[in-house]
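chain below, 451 aa
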Amino acid sequence: MGISRRHAETQPGLSPTHSSASRWSGKSFLVSPIQGQPCQQLVPAGTQPGHLASLSLSVWGRNGPAELSSGETEELQRIKWHRKKLLEDIQKLKDEIEDVFAQIDCFEMTEESRLAQKEKELCIGRKKFNMDPMKGIQYLTEHKLLTSSAQDIAQFLYKGEGLNKTAIGNYLGERDPINLQVLQAFVDCHEFANLNLVQALRQFLWSFRLPGEAQKIDRMMETFAARYCLCNPGVFQSTDTCYVLSFSIIMLNTSLHNPNVRDKPPFERFVSMNRGINDGSDLPEEQLRNLFDSIKSEPFSIPEDDGNDLTHTFFNPDREGWLLKLGGRVKTWKRRWFILTDSCLYYFEFTTDKEPRGIIPLENLSVQKVDDPKKPFCLELYNPSCRGQKIKACKTDGDGKVVEGKHQSYRISASSAQERDQWIEAIRASITRVPFYDLVSARKKKIASKQ
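prediction:
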């Protein structure tokens, strides 16, 4: 059905049966180029409102759309094709976005898994280090958690997260070439500029625990003294001066704050100890006074071994076994499981106990055979220089509280003479005494020989 004749006559040159919108001077008519979409109303310019109904019917018809020309049909097909491509592109874009998000989720899960595995391996490495520093470092480097460079290992030890401070000290004190390089890099991690010697020592001695072996202590304090003098040029004449004074301060700390030391040294004795150590001359008394007062007012803090209980200590002990120990308010013999390690003698009530009933540090003690009227094969631990004084030790009381031991000597019985002699030999090999005096004496001789 075409456009009404009456309306067509108002438009010159328009055929009554022509339905093409392109021939209208303005926009054209109602058309639905895409099936299922609302029609767009295209109205010829100048069309009166009353003519709209007849126009709509003439184009759309009463029973369906009017015939389209071949050009209009092609245009309609192009529109449909573009619509289809657009929808395909939209779907493709949605699929790509979903794929990207899936990859991100997969990456995050993989990264979380990798980090969790890395943290697990790092935890294992720390535990291995606390039990055996060499094996711990080897494990960490093999699993690429550390490089083999001295600087990387030193940074790991300097941060000290979850590491046993005693294990750090033992590793740094070894004399293998890599350990010496790590020691130097570790000390270089410390910044001592504009600190007095006590302040620098507080920082340094907090980062690890000094081992008990004189040679290890010597290497570590030598490296410290060189670093301090580098950070504070002109304070001392030489690193030897810094070395000797550092040990004097450490010994002063022990003398002033150890409850077993009754004779507290006055300032004058501290000055006397350090005469002539500055390349033959004396250090300024004001400088020594400041160092003395600093230690007197606040002792060195001993770092706690973080991240571990005592159980790590008892792997690969020097010796272990059942012995009888004389003790208690009423002196009785009690069977205890003894473990000798790290220059300490630990004793337990049961082998399955995780924490000892008592700890006896062997520093400055001696051991000997002794006869006892009630038990054979006895040995005795005692302090040879302070007979009658309580031995520095601790134990747990009946309520589970840790208390100071009250023994002036420890008497222990073995099951045979051979076992007793083996324990005595092992204890003697483990016993240490404070090596500072020997080290200071040797360094003072070195200073005197230069004059």
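The two ends are 129 Å apart (CA to CA). The longest strand covers residues 332-341.
thats it, cya
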